Amino acid sequence: MTDPRPLLAFPPPQTGPIPAATSPTPYRPVQGPSAGRQGTRLTPQFQTLRVALEAERAQLTEQTGSPEPELVAVFDLAGTVEAFMRAAALVDGLEFLSELQEDKVDADDDFFYEADGETQDDKVPQSLYMVMTNAQAVTELVRLFELWQEDQSITFERGLNPLKGVFGLLRAIRRWGPEDRVRETGLLEQWREDVAVGQSIARVEIELWYRDDPTSRTAAQEHVADIVHSSGGTVLKSSDQEAIAYHAVLADIPMSQVEQVLARGPEAIELLTTETVMIVSPSRPMTFPATEPTVADQLRFDTTLPEGRPQVGLLDGVPLANHVCLQGRLIVDDPDDRGEKYAVGQLNHGTSMASLIAHGDLLDPGPSLRQPIYVRPILEPHEHFREERVPPDDLLVDLVHRAFHRMFEGDGANDPAASSVRVVNLSVGDPTRVFIRRLSPLARLLDWLAHVYNLVIVVSAGNHMLVTPTLVTEDLSDVPSLQSTAARSLYERARHRRLLSPAEAINALTIGALHEDAAVQELPATVVDVIKAGTPASYSPVGYGFRRSVKPDVLLPGGRVIYQAPVAEAGKPVELDAVLTPATGPGLRVAAPGRGGELTGTSFTSGTSNAAALATRAVSNILDMLAGLTQEDGDFPFPDAQYHPALAKTLLVHASGWHDLLGTMRDDLGLSGQSIRRELTRLLGYGPVHPERIATADRVRAVLLGAGSINKDQRHSFRFPLPSDLSASTEWRRLTITLGWLSPVSVRTQKYRMARLKFTAPRDDLAIAPTEADANAVTKGTIQHQVLEGSSVAAFASGTSLSIDVDCRGELERFPSPVRYALAASLEVSPEVQIDVQAQVRTLLRAEVRERARAQVPAR
User: Fold this and answer.
1) Quick one: 723 and 825 in the same domain?
2) Same-domain pairing of 309 and 423
């Protein structure tokens, strides 16, 4: 970057209520069948629930002191009923458990949309509401249902009227069954693999329905333990976390149980038919294979040692703390004594992550981190193989929660271990939890922690190393053709590269990887590099995230992966095999334990963990920059330090963009029409982070920062003054606006994100239009990032300012406190244009400072 300039602060925003919409979007209700039709359809289904409860009671009559039998009922609705949870709480014997949004379904004769009296073909939403119910509650629901059938305008007892909407939109009511308990968990697939390789036991994570009453939770856990023990299994651990409605048991069950399920279906064993169980997932700890190091002749890095309290927390493996690159840079807090299990040669993943966070790629290192890194080991070495893994006898959610609690609250009589930490790196997840639509417990935990502790949590999107391109071997020397073919092959297999838990967390920064590194060696003829540099890596997952939000958020270099040159009959497709190159590259060069105990070992690695580590490093540098900002005379003040985490998250994303990738990937993938931005958002998120644009400004690019705390139904209006030299100009210009926040979450509802912030990008004054991420996806998470460009004549009067309105709406009725948010906006023109954008914007801002100062001087 030439001619660096300072960042600027927005004037304080005007605050007030969100104005009523002048043209509100008309509400379009789903049309349902008549009350008589609903009675015909649903009365037998209610009766089925009654019969099931009577059967349960009959089984319990001989047991003294048996509780009233309960079952989990699923209300399958064509749409949503916002107040269902509150209404359910008013029916004795009914307890709301959870809500799940399904994919939209085709309209039918019963449920459809209508416009101008004509039936529409649009798909209809489908929502599942799960409630625990007993016979008394079912009887009461049937009574209310019959009253509604007789008179749809009837007024129910106070608080129960939302049930009328439920009855009108109810597709079906049924029990939560064995198939529900294994759906989208990967359990059956994993069990087939276990049987094929001759496993003797199957380890599972059993998630129980989270009951409001602690006594009910204890009884449910004891019941599940009895089932496990009676089948010949063992209970290893349990966890009960009220904040995220998580109640789980880790258990081993014998393969005889597995074989019964594979032979006869999920209903074959009691564990999958008991009412207290929500889902059962395979427990397969994430593993990190060891790499072969090389000893560096001379390592080049910034030797300045850090000072002060840690700002970065790293949850990973035990690092080689006395490696020459790391000595004096780490605070290793190992209360579980995991370090005692490691041999020196096994200290791989934690060492590499710490190395990247401290220095970046050792082939192109940057200034070392200013503060020491707090490291909490959560991995351990495998007792048989050369790899590290999550401890198999622990529930990962519980392990991560304990680590955060120790950092910020302390454990036992100990003080907080690292309360100064503001960004936490977690590149460890659950390989069995492929995100489809249901948020994983670990994602829910991270969302809650980020909001409660005001943190930036950086997570890797996961790796899909086994998903490789397929080529038709014609001419290996035609590199552009090979790269285009590889890109299309990976695009066609995108459904096999979904996010891995906890990458779907909405408050976290989820990082994907670019096929990029600083290695420049010439590759031998036995390998091929078929992915274009600077495009998404073949192993990096694709989105979308929860409720079709943008995920991964951004992409950073993860290291290139190369492949064996294919040997196959010309014209026939061949799937490529990846080649590991830890000693020679390509990849990112990281610190590693040397072969003979040397402390100068390095290795070349690839993965989204690398990209996440680089993102963590960038966020820490942004936090340093924010801490060093000072208000100069005549400028507006910068936001308070409490907003620095939200600002750091926002500024990292603000430096991202598709830029030239839009045309490159559009052409390679053959995209056209309305699908271009939607599909590229799924593949790129908000795009690669451009390091030269992180928290920087220059002559042709002015960057303004703002932040605040906002309540439900409030609007904060920011003003960005426009340089007069841009008026009537046809020069290319770009406006980038990024809004980031940390939302409280409601873990039992599909709304989940309690605070929905949004800005509407101004277009008219600058004659610009959105060019990158899909307009619908950008408003679904906790980062809204929009890029607008144009070169048409922009006619505006001198003194004009862009108005950027930040609106806060509540997905639920209220949230516990005002929500912290941050806003970054930049206006830029081409470097060839002789306009000093930054200077003109600053002059206009300073004029407003003087004007406000004069207005505050009392008249004499």
Assistant:
1) yes
2) yes
**Strands annotated E in 517-674:** 527-528, 554-557, 562-564, 573-575, 578-579, 588-591, 601-605
Amino acid, single-letter form, for residue 584:
T
Same-domain pairing of 232 and 316? no
Look up residue 846 and give its amino acid: R
Q: How far is the CA of 331 from the CAs of 326, 338, 426, 494, 699, in angstroms?
A: 10, 15, 17, 40, 41
Q: What is the mean pLDDT of residues 578-602?
A: 91
Residue 851 CA: distances (Å) to CA of 10, 15, 533, 858: 15, 19, 51, 13
Work out the percent of the chain whose per-residue pLDDT is above 90.
78
d(C-alpha 259, C-alpha 644), whole Å: 54
Quick one: residue 410, left, alpha or beta (phi over 0 = left, psi -120 to 50 = alpha)? Answer: left
Is residue 169 assigned to a domain? yes
For residue 347, the model assigns a pLDDT of: 95
Mean pLDDT for the stretch of residues 836-854: 93
Which residue, 528, 647, 510, 639, is CA-closest to 581?
528
In a shared domain, residues 546 and 436: yes
**What three-state secondary structure class fits 624?**
helix
Range of the domain at 228: 180-284
473-484, pLDDT tens digit by residue?
Answer: 666 778 888 899
**Residue indicated by tokens 């509407």:** 760
Give residue 160's pLDDT.
93
Residues forming a β-bridge with 96: 131
DSSP designation for 266: G
* Helices 661-669/675-684 angle, 10° precision: 110
Query: Do 422 and 503 fall into the same domain?
Result: yes
